[in-house]
Amino acid sequence: MADQYNRSGRPGNYDDGYQNDRYYDDGYGDTGYNDDAGYSGDYDDYVDVSEEDLEREQQRLNRERREKAQQRRRRREQRERELRRAQRITVAMIVLAIAAVVAIFFAVRYAAQHLSGGAAVTAQTASSAASEVSTDGSTVEASAEASTDGVVEGDISTYSAEKIAEDRAAKNYPSEIATFWPYYQFLETSNTVTIPSVPGYDDKYSASFGTEFGTATGNETSSQAVSADEEVVANSEAAASLVTTESAADTSTVSATDTGESEEAVSEDSSSEQSSTTNADGSVTSKDGTVVPASAVVGGDYIGSKYAMIVNADTGEIIAEKNACERIVPASMTKVMTILVAAEHLKSEDSLKDMVTLTQEDEDYAYVNGSSAVCWMPGDTASVEDLFYGTILPSGADAAMALAEYTAGDMDSFVKLMNEKCEELGISDTTHFMNPVGVYDENHYSTPYDIAIIMKAALENDWCRKVLAEHTWTTSPTSVHPEGITVSNWFLRRIEDQDNNGTVQCAKTGFVNESGSCAVSYQVSNGGGHYIAVTANAISGWRCIYDHSALYRQYTK
């Protein structure tokens, strides 16, 4: 009776091939899968069909990949065609713009020379009516009237010597600068000198790079004055040749990208080169053989920077200037304001020992904008003290960004503090910052006059003055440099070898394509006076050094 049932309890007969019931035999059989299951009945046929399907699928995928690759190639070719077209249009526009600027320049020059014969008389009258600082410093008078070269006379009322002394005492100056002018305003006087221009040289940097920022109107008076000198006219073509010769001779300058900012790297073996030699007639022969006329010589050299200014920090007098109130791109001179704002917001001196972690964003900002950097690695830690020195000495964008974030939380909040400081110093109408580094932006601008004001304010801060005067500094240990990173202020290290009629104690340089080489420095003269010099739009870092040395030799006591 039990044989009538299969193992599952159902009735059925066992077959001889395998002891399964008839349901298995009926459903599958002894020879393989049946047709109802969707296969041919033979396992080998099933395997063949599967391999064919896989091959067809692989061929389909290969076709799709080839089609996608062709689409990418066509898109890339289209982008390249569009880029080339845009480049051709840009070049054409630049050429047209240069042609227009040249045409306007010559038109203005023609009008100045032929249509305004009384200009010189007017300029002399305006100069004689200017405010004066008396030689004994007893009285200061200022007028709100602007002079012909754009330097605003100021609006300071008459101050007695007692009032000036009282205000100096109220500012509690340290002993090193006890005689500083107590106000954030400098005065042009009847003794203020217009720094002579070398014909064809002032626009040298702009002609080389085509990236001049601002206008050239402030230089018209100087151009008229020197063109009246027959010797200058005779040498103008030779002086203009400096556009190519000095640029070729000074191969050590590193050019930044249009939006970036990079300090000039000056080769060590260039330090022994002399900018020029003075001839018996007072003219200067440049190292390439070009003769600069005596009427354009300053301090035994010539001023190659288009913008220049030197002020007596003790009396507030503008000793000499050219285009001092013209708008410039401040580049890394911006960082003087950066450390000033950061120093004024330190909670205590102990805050300098706080440790800050450098972020990927800090390093990326320097890299993307072509800026100089201390070159920490993301995740490295540095003290706040390191960030101050790293901002000034190597002009580190990463240090400046980290210092700004430490001070205000983020860059935008810090920039707001910078512009508020401009209002406090009375320069907000002519100076505006967009970042703490000096990266080019059309809304990031200043003037040589304003940079001198910022430098004066920084010198009044003990900590800022110490940082600006440091020649070298070694940071805290880093992941790559366990002994720390050593940085230096190359401007101070090189200008100390020049004849400066004193000691240049503090300095900050700058460079972007739009600014040329620029710098602001502070000197204590052999006679004990304190002076601030600013230059901008020079063709090289060495030309910038020579310009500052010439200004100090000529105009300090």
Short descriptors:
557 residues; alpha+beta; six-stranded mixed beta sheet; three-stranded antiparallel beta sheet; disordered N terminus
How would you sum up this structure, described in words?
With 557 residues, the chain is α+β, with helices and mostly antiparallel strands. Helices cover 41% and strands 14% of the residues. It has 17 helices and 17 strands. The strands form 6 sheets. The chain has a 6-stranded mixed sheet, with helices on both faces. Strands 4-5-6 form a 3-stranded antiparallel sheet. A hairpin with a 4-residue loop joins strand 9 and strand 10 (317-322). Helix 9 packs parallel to helix 12, helix 11 crosses helix 12 (397-408) and helix 12 (397-408) crosses helix 13 (411-425). The protein is globular and about 110 Å long.
Secondary structure topology:
Blueprint: H1 22-27, H2 43-114, H3 119-128, E1 139-140, E2 159-160, H4 161-170, E3 187-194, H5 204-209, H6 220-227, H7 230-240, H8 242-249, E4 276-278, E5 284-286, E6 291-292, E7 297-298, E8 301-302, E9 307-312, E10 317-322, H9 334-344, E11 355-357, H10 360-368, E12 381-383, H11 384-392, H12 397-408, H13 411-425, H14 448-459, H15 462-469, E13 472-474, E14 486-488, H16 490-495, E15 502-512, E16 516-525, E17 530-538, H17 541-555
Parallel strand pairs: 3-10
Antiparallel strand pairs: 1-2, 4-5, 5-6, 7-8, 9-10, 9-17, 11-12, 13-14, 15-16, 16-17
Helix pairs in contact: 9-12, 9-14, 10-12, 11-12, 12-13
Task: Briefly characterize the structure.
With 557 residues, the protein is of the alpha+beta class. It contains 17 helices and 17 strands. The chain has helices spanning 22-27, 43-114, 119-128, 161-170, 204-209, 220-227, 230-240, 242-249, 334-344, 360-368, 384-392, 397-408, 411-425, 448-459, 462-469, 490-495, 541-555, and strands spanning 139-140, 159-160, 187-194, 276-278, 284-286, 291-292, 297-298, 301-302, 307-312, 317-322, 355-357, 381-383, 472-474, 486-488, 502-512, 516-525, 530-538.
